[in-house]
Structure formats: C-alpha cells, structure tokens
Amino acid sequence: MSIVLPSLPAGKTDAFKAVAKFTAPVRRPVEPVGRYFLAHASRTLRGHTWSEFEK
Amino acid sequence: MSAVIGITFGNTSSSIAVATQDGKVDVIANPDGDRAIPSALSYVGSDEYHGVQAEHQLIRNPKNTIINFRDFIGKPFEEVDADAKYQVGAPAIKTADGSVGYEITIDGNTKTLTVDEISKRHFKQLKLAAEDFIGKDIEGVVLTVPTNFNEQQREKLTQIANESGLKVLQLINEPSAALLAHLSAEEDRLLQDKIYVVADFGGIRSDAAVIAVRGGVLTILATAHEFGLGGDKLDDALAEYFAKEFEKKTKANPRTNARSLAKLKAESIVVKKTLSNVQTSTCSIESLAEGFDFHTSINRLRYELAARQPLSDMTAFVEKVVVKAGLETLDIDEVLLVGGASHTPKLASNIQFIFPETTTVVAPSLDPKAINPTELVARGAALQASLIESFDEEEIKESLQPIVVNTQHLVKPIGIKDAEGKFQAILVAETAYPIKRSIQVTNGESSSVIVELFEGKRTVKETVIEAEKDEDESDDDYSDDEPEVKREVVYEAGELLAELSLKDLKPNSKLEVTVNILQNGVLHLSGRELKQGSVAVRGEVTSA
Ligand SMILES: Nc1ncnc2c1ncn2[C@@H]1O[C@H](COP(=O)(O)OP(=O)(O)OP(=O)(O)O)[C@@H](O)[C@H]1O
Ligand SMILES: [Mg+2]
C-alpha cells in the first residue's frame, strides 16, 4: 500500500527545480506543554538536530 | 522527599493531581473525600471551613461564605461583575486599594478579606490536602488558567500561590492541559495530527478553544468565553421547575426568601448530578418554605426539557468557536468535553448532533473510557509538572521566551502527488516549524520518477449516499427524504512548489522523501533511495 511516484516525464532533465514559493506562514504562539514542546524549545534554542530527539 | 503536583483552581471547584514517572496520574481526594473540591470558604465563630463543608454553609451562614472568587483575582473592582445572579453568599465589596474583597465576621469581629487573602487560604487548604495524600512536601506546582486570563491576573495568581507556599513552576492554559491529559491516555495519540475543539463547561462560565496538534505540538487557533453560562444555569432551570411544582402543591412561593432559594439550589445541584448517571431522581427538601417540606421525583427527560435553553446555548457556543477559527464542523477531528457540566448526557448528544459523523465527541455519556471531564485539566497540569520537574527555573524560563513560543506555522499543507494524481500530505496546515518529516514511497515499475512538491488545496467532497431500499418499511416517515449527502474535506494538489527527480532505480525500490523547514523559513526537499551509500537529491524552496 505504499505511495507510488509518477514516472519522470520524457525531456525533464533537472535533478531539482524550484518552481514557486510556499504561502507566507502565520506566526502564532505554540502551547508550552508536553514533551514535544520541550523538544521544539531545545531545537529552537540550541539548534539540536532531530535525530537527538528521535532516540 | 518532595513532589510536584498540578492544580486547577476554578470558580466552582478545584482539583489536585500528581503524576508518577511512568505517566500514571492520581487525582487527589481531600480529607472530605472530594476530588472536585468546592472553591469555597466559610467562617463560623473562629473556625474556617473549606470545600464542601463551606459550601454547606451557604444555607445557614451565607454572609460569611465566599464562593465564585477566582475570576476576581488581579482585577479592579470596577471591572468585575459582582452583582451577577450567581454571586450568592458574602457580597463582593471594593477594598481600600480598589480590588475585590469581602466583609466577614470572624470570632465576632468584622474583617475585610481581600480576594488575594481568600485565594491564599484556599491554596493553603489544597496544599494541606495534597501533602496529606502524598505524604511528602509539595515542592512545586503547575497551575492552570483560562486562556483569557490577562498578564496581570497571571502574575497575581502566581504571587498568591507562591505566598501560600506553593511554588509555581509554570502556568498553563486550561484547554491545553485538558487536551494533554486526554492525548496522554494512550501511547502516540499526541503524534496524530488532528484538530480538536476543547469545550469546557464549568459552573459559571463556558470556555472553548480550537487546538491544532501537529507533531505533538499544540497550537490554539481560536478561543471563546461566555460568562454566566454553565452548570449554574442548569441548576437554576431545575430549581425553577421544582419551585413551580412546590407552589402548585402548597401555594407557598419558595423564591421570596434567600434561605429557601439556597435550599432549592443545593438540592437542584444534587438532582442534576444524579440525572447525569440515572434516568430518575428524587428531590427532597425539608421545610422548603412556610414550613412545608417538598418531596418529589423527576426523570431525565423532564429535566432536559426544563434546561433546554441553557443546553442549546452551550451547544451554540461550541459552534461559535469553530466559526471563529475560520473552520467548519467538518474540519474538526475530535471534540473534547471538559468541566463538571460536561457530565450532562444531553449536552454531549446535542454537541454530537451538530458535528458530522466523522467527528468524535469525547464525553463520559458517549464513551465510558473517557476520562472524567472534571479531572482532565488537573491531570494535564500534573503531567506537565512531572515533565518539567527535572528542569531548573532558568531552563523553564528560557523555553518560554517569545522566540521559542511565537512560532511560524504553515498556512497550507505541503505534500507530493502520487502516480494517480492524488495529493499526499507530508506536512499539514498549522504545522509549526522548524519541522522535519519524511515519508516512504516507491518508484513502482518506473526506473525514473519525479517528486512533485505541492501545496494542498482544501476542497469539500460530497458523496450522495443512496437510501437503502428497505422491503418492509413499517414506519415510513423518512422514505421520501432527500438522499443523504456525506461531506468530507479532501486536499488536492494546488500550487506546484518544486520538482525533484530520482533516476536509475530498480523496480519497486524503497525511496524516502523528506521535507525539512528550518527556523529561517527555508524548506529543504530531499529524495533518496533507502539503501547503503545512496546519494540524496536535494533542493530548497522559500516562503513568500
Ligand atoms: N455529574 C455531574 N453532572 C452534571 N453536572 C455536574 C456534575 N458534576 C459537576 N457538575 C457541575 O459542573 C459545574 C462545575 O464544573 P467545574 O468543576 O468544571 O467548575 P469550574 O471549572 O470551577 O467552573 P467555573 O469557573 O466556570 O465556575 C457545576 O455546575 C457542577 O454542578
Ligand atoms: Mg473550569
């Protein structure tokens, strides 16, 4: 049941191409509760990598 | 030895909870055996009564009994509604410094107690109950507040708790605490990306919040508050029903004196709670008015009719907060009912009725596994307390800085298109970043594939459900009804953001697509084959 990617159309050669910007984000407060917030805080403050939290 | 606890302090009741390291939570009973401890104090002679014992004094000794004071904290007298109908007991007065207080007779002397002093005494009683139960000193507490408590109220409450000997580790919002408790009941529920409505029906107010949970992080999208709407209104409806019946029987009016009213109210509360559990309840009040006793019984249906107005106001209130968030009921995955009045079966079924079948409504009358709604907030506070227990004050403060808390959120989902043209979200709307998420995909039979990164576009898919042809339609009232239309939110591929190609693949290889949005708003897209030594293809997209 895994997701199948479309085949590469003929003539497309770029390994990567940026097409458009994503919609401007909104700034909102997150709720400072729960362990995933603490992980978010560490990431923001100390730039910890994701894998450190995935352990 | 010491412990950290969670406390919720409501206008009507307060609860204390403590969590163990493995995430189990105990809600603490005070010496009276109550887990929902009435936020009430009463003074008789030189004695101070607390909780349910104080509440009982509302009949005999109302002038020295103080209830419903939590919302007065940190507010000048002019800004509070001291004359609201539910403000019974000792009347609130303006103190010398312009805040709210009460004139109380203690041991024959008249004394003005400020709302700060009353709250402090209340906290001291809660602290005693907690220490008694746990058998340890209380080292710190996570306290909950309504989302509309302003900065001044938050500061004042913290100060009051600290002065009562309860060191405040953190103040958190009530709906977030409730949701945290609900989502912590089962492993991994926090990690399901869903939109919740947390609707809290207390005694004298109703509060609601729409909360997005993304990667375990909670974001409030909208809040609503209504003062005067809550369980108290249900009591009044019941009291009026009984008053009418009593009048018919005895020709005596129980509404003309305060003592009769207080008796009527106290019994109505008991009957109301009974009717949450069973279909009928007796009601008996000795010497209700003019020397007449009152004995009757009522069934749930009659109660629900009598309380129809407040119940439908509460239902409409939930609808309002969804609209305030710019959403439809269709967008809500779950509604969590919180607060004592949420025990009311009719309230839960009314709310279930306004949401589509795809929305789960969590309430004790609908789901026997639901956590007691009166305890949810305190449980969440206890979980948070045990979570931050090992951090020092500086670390907690640091994590609450605006730079951490005020976070960018995606407005639209971001994902890829599969071979059938279907949009597959990797990150949903309202996801806070920095965030990194990967999905596993495959190339199928193709040796080269394209990863097309899109923003999702919300659409509502309508499916007509053909009415089942029933052979023997006995009560046929509905057979001519319009066919039922099932509506659901479906995201389609909208704006194309980037393309990335992966080449020279063996059939059915395992591939991974990763979206990583950094704090600076740059989105890193990468795709690679999941095998040793494979080289990822990468690129960047920025935000408008
Ligand atoms: N089993 C029950 N069935 C129906 N109503 C109940 C039940 N238990 C408690 N209540 C009602 O719930 C209300 C109190 O709710 P809760 O304890 O959540 O109050 P609170 O947070 O202090 O509220 P507020 O600040 O709005 O006064 C009261 O009106 C009480 O009678
Ligand atoms: Mg409450």
Radius of gyration of chain A: 19 Å
Question: Whole-Å distance between the termini of chain A?
Answer: 27 Å
**Percent of residues in helices of chain A:** 25-40%
Strand content of chain A: 15-25%
| CATH topology label of the largest domain in chain B | Nucleotidyltransferase, domain 5
Q: Mind summarizing the main beta sheet of chain B? A: 6 strands, mixed
Q: Give the low-confidence spans of chain B.
A: none
Shape of chain B: globular
| Structure annotation, total helices of chain A | 2
Structural category of chain B is: alpha+beta
Number of strands of chain B: 28
Residue share in β-strands of chain B: 35-45%
CATH architecture of the largest domain in chain B: 2-Layer Sandwich
Report low-confidence residues of chain A grouped into runs of 5 or more: none
Put the structure in a nutshell.
By secondary structure, chain A is an alpha+beta fold. Chain A is built from 2 helices and 3 strands.
Structural write-up:
Chain A has 55 residues and is of the alpha+beta class. Chain A is built from two helices and three strands, in the order βββαα. Chain A has helices spanning 35-46, 51-54; strands at residues 3-4, 16-18, 26-29. Chain B is α+β, with helices and mostly antiparallel strands. In chain B, strands 1, 2, 3, 4, 11 and 12 form a six-stranded mixed beta sheet that branches. In chain B, strands 15-14-13-18-19 form a five-stranded mixed beta sheet, with helices on both faces. In chain B, strands 22-21-24-25 form a four-stranded antiparallel beta sheet, with no helix packed on it. The model of chain B has no long low-confidence stretch (mean pLDDT 95). The chains are: A alpha+beta (55), B alpha+beta (544). Strand 2 of chain A pairs antiparallel with strand 25 of chain B.
